[in-house]
Design goal:
- The chain has 510 residues and is α/β, with parallel strands linked by helices.
- It has two domains: 254 residues, 3-Layer(aba) Sandwich (Alkaline Phosphatase, subunit A); 229 residues, BPG-independent phosphoglycerate mutase, domain B (2,3-Bisphosphoglycerate-independent phosphoglycerate mutase, substrate-binding domain).
- The protein contains 17 helices and 15 strands.
- The strands form two sheets. It has an eight-stranded mixed sheet with strand order 6-7-5-4-3-8-9-10, sandwiched between helices.
- It is globular and about 70 Å long.
- The chain starts with a strand and ends in a 14-residue tail after the last helix.
Amino acid sequence: MAKVCLIVIDGWGISEEKHGNAIAHAKTPVMTKLSQNSGKYVTLDASGESVGLPAGLMGNSEVGHLNIGAGRVMYQDILRINKDCRSGNISNNPYFVEACQRAIKNGGRLHLLGLISDGGVHGHIEHLLAMLAAAKKLQVPKAYIHFFADGRDTPPKSGLKYIKELATKLKEMDYGMIATVMGRYYAMDRDKRWERIKIAYEGLVDGVGETVEVSGHDYSSLFKKIEERYNADQSDEFLTPIIVNKDGLLKDNDTLLFFNFRADRMRQITETFGIKLNFETKTKLKNLELFTMNQYKKEFPFKMLYPPIKPTNVLAEAIGKAKVGQFHCAETEKYAHVTFFFNGGQEAEFEGEVRKMVQSPRVATYDLDPEMNASGVADEMCKAIEEDKYQFVMCNFAPPDMVGHTGKYEQTIIACEATDKAIGRIVESCEKNNYVLLITADHGNAERMIDEKGGPVTSHTTNRVPFIMHNTDQNFAKFSHNAALCDVAPTVLKLMNIAKPSEMDGQPLL
């Protein structure tokens, strides 16, 4: 049984285009050398239908780690949701109906909260519009929209386009009102920065923020305010709260429906409204009921429109059943990805699994510390390898993705170089301790930082990602299928001489 080390680099795609390519312009001697061995280097599809997303949609960290760990194409909730939204069947979803009925009984106020763009990573404007139509059909008197602006998975100042699109649809439907607008930096924090969530909370509840006056479905004053913010160099992600309709602020007895379909950036905001406050604030609301698009956390008591479909016999489970040790490591920002998502949506450890979280730097944005804690992750990985207690060790390196999302090109180059240096240390440990090393990525990002017009790109890409093998006599086979992230787990199991579970439809690439 071979010992295997798997490294997942976050946001490291492959592109022949050198313009704006932080990876190509970074000094990465380790990855460059490893990528030049043709028998031990292939590329994998990490986007669209190959990872269970709609065709042409960029991959993301959650989806990437799910597919890598599950060893099969993980069809995402977005496909189920899209089907119901496009057919209008969302109006028959039992928990959507219950949310509407509850709103009608408690003052007629339904709040729809989430990310509004067509980025398709956390939420989608199409879902909101379908829910508005369904709420109108179910005769909910008032639907208030709380617009969380994107600017990471979409261009940094594209939010105005989506606000205008939404305003046009509201006028056409003669239904629904925009109540607040704020950036995802505040409303969707996932790093326990409760001071950010507090800003979102006090905007949503107390109306703390800039107020604009609107009349009916005329949102021209809001458009003007967004343009002012852009001119002051405040992009979508960082929009501080704008109060559009004071009647739409959250009140006692209200019904809240959070419509993001990706869990990680919804956990803190829903915990705040539905479980407990983690900060001091003057207004504590009573008798709210929260509904969520899908499961944000297993322990949360909220009703879900789309409960999870959980895979069984994922990689970590198969290794656990083989009674050998395994070690999973990442820094704070990506810890959920090497545990919850990699393990197929399971919070608890599998048998023999040890986890280690390395603290991410406490900075406002990661361009301020672009190396993040790559060295700390490397420290823990080298220690685990040298202890020789684990047949399987794996980690995530966050810098290329997290710094790439800032749109800061030079800093992303630094992030890529720090990651390469950290990988180099793990390569040495694997060589000294007889581990087969596999390196891949969950999706692209850092290879496209500048667009054709010279503007910053902060989103993921649909580019393929590397799959590298090192420190073994084995080579990758010649294969005819479109190799994808789902093929990683079967490859690991074959190296470890553990039988591939029948549930895995990915193929070993050896």
